[in-house]
Amino acid sequence: MSGIYIHIPFCKQACSYCDFYFVTRDRLIPEFVDALVHEISAVPLFDGSPFPSDPVRTLYLGGGTPSRLPLSQLERIFEALHRQFDLSGLTECTVEVNPEDVTTAWLDGLRDLGVTRLSMGIQSFQPELLDFMHRAHSSTQAHYALDTVTGAGFPSFSVDLIYGCPGQSDAQLRDDLEQLLAYSPPHVSAYSLTIEPRTRLGKQTELGRLAPADDETVAGQARMIRESLASRGVERYEISNYAAPGHEAEHNSAYWNHQNYLGLGPAAHSFFWPVGHNQALRWHHAADIHNWSRTVQSEGYQIWVDAAVAWRNGDLPGVNGPTPPDGIEIEQLPQETLAGERMMTGLRTSTGVDPDQLLSRYGHPLSPAQRKRVEEFRHQGWMEPEAPLRLTDRGFELADAIILRLLE
Ligand code: SF4
């Protein structure tokens, strides 16, 4: 197994753009950790189950905001993980952190638990933009957190930035980049603001009080980020991710490459593609902390455990094997779907997609129509002239449209 993802769904407050699942009631933390420890302990231990027997390479605690958890609760989670899994070969252990929670003592505790990497949601240093995003931290707290993190001696850390906000000027973004680069972050994730319907920004847009930034401004800001980071040796390796050499996020790369991972906690997704099978499964809990907690602590959860065993006998859980309990949704992915996903995720990376792998691993080589499109994209300068299939800088700006046309 490649990785374990743990979803910690607590946040201090709702950011105006966020449509992830989260709760703002910290008083639920103790019972959440009880249920999580239960879920970790219930991962099937029997022969044939993919999970506990394989060494885990990466561990990722995401959210929500994992830094809402006090050290004592994180210790309980790590103890349970060590009891259940072989973590001796762990190469990366990431915890997402928000600036308002950072203290030296808490970071020292994380290091003692074996955490090797922090991912911090800074988003901007501009007070008016932090206000617009309804972030819980101030610019001063962002600087304090970065100072503390850089002094804490973790092997790597990452910073999230948001650009393309309505009204955000190039000068503001340039200032954000200057302030950020003073800390020499080895990894940056930069996302253009997306206005999702079920968010505060979505409602304001619906009411006509807000208009998204225009495409040209957003594309120009993306270019500014790429050039500014590249000038400091932090190069793009995925459409939204930039790293100094050796600091690429291993955990996320495993998602893009269809390696197996196990998701624990409400709204976490799991993926499993057993060797020799021509289909994979992806499953997740309903995004609801109470529903999830009930499910993982119920007798019905055993049915799911049984389903994992059934796979060993050739019965696909939820398909012709036992049905998973209420609250777990399962998706069956034939190789053709997986090949399309690989094309989509691979083209978003700087390493691209190997056409030979589409045949050898996915059984679906490029079709004649796709080959023709690739030639067109090369002719336009959107794709590099030789294999593997890789987008040029201009191609990255048009990535969504190019991928859509290739998968049509
Ligand atoms: S902290 Fe992250 S998960 Fe929580 S509301 Fe803000 S963006 Fe969403």
Feature tags:
binds iron/sulfur cluster; alpha/beta; TIM Barrel; 2 domains; 408 residues; Arc Repressor Mutant, subunit A; globular; 3-stranded antiparallel beta sheet
Bound ligands: iron/sulfur cluster
Strand content: 15-25%
Q: Could you give the distance between the termini?
A: 32 Å
The count of strands amounts to: 12
Description:
With 408 residues, this protein is of the alpha/beta class. It folds into two domains: 252 residues, Aldolase class I (TIM Barrel); 73 residues, Orthogonal Bundle (Arc Repressor Mutant, subunit A), CATH 1.10.10.920. It is 40% helix and 17% strand. It has 16 helices and twelve strands. The strands form two sheets. The chain has a nine-stranded mixed beta sheet, sandwiched between helices. It has a three-stranded antiparallel beta sheet with strand order 10-11-12. Strand 3, helix 3 and strand 4 form a beta-alpha-beta unit. Helix 2 packs parallel to helix 3. The longest helix has 16 residues. The radius of gyration is 22 Å and the shape is globular. The two termini are 32 Å apart. The site of iron/sulfur cluster has 11 residues, from loops.
